[in-house]
């Protein structure tokens, strides 16, 4: 009886051990499945992040190209503005010179008119004097 009792206890212990082993295997399989799912999710997230990174790099490259293009346009615009400022300065100088020449010509014209009026006045006086002499001689 003692042997049967020990035998039962050993069987009972074996059954408990087998149950615990099966339970541990179930937990192990569940842990493996969870890890596999997490690895798949991590791989999917890595792929998505790599795709976003590639897209962002392409966008950054496009933006860098646009920035360089706008910098070149800005540089050309500044050069054009500087050239136009020089042109304005040159034109202002030419305008001042032209005004001075015009004023000088107007002064010369006024002097010539005054001289012409004086000559005309003298000519009229001379003509009137000659006419008087001619009338006096008649």
TrEMBL record:
Coiled coil in keyword set: yes
Annotated spans, Disordered: 114-138
Biased segments, Basic and acidic residues type: 125-138
Coiled coil location: 7-52
Keyword terms of this UniProt record: Coiled coil
Protein name: Uncharacterized protein
